[in-house]
Design goal:
Elements: E1 2-10, E2 13-22, H1 25-33, E3 37-38, E4 45-51, E5 57-62
Antiparallel strand pairs: 1-2, 1-4, 3-5, 4-5
Amino acid sequence: MARFQIEEFYGQRLVATASAEAPDALSAAETLTGKVISTKALQEHWFRVVDEREGTVHEFSIAEEPPKDFAK
């Protein structure tokens, strides 16, 4: 397994860092958050995941849940 450095952001502000061992960057982000991750960092709350060995950088956000239908 690879080792990843995970940085949590709100906008451009870094709010937390952690590290994790996982088979890939997406799994590392999901392990940290406990939620389904989107492969696009399109939200204000997002994560940067760096593979410490390869030096590759990935950006993710938490996948949005579908809106609830209150009409029923």
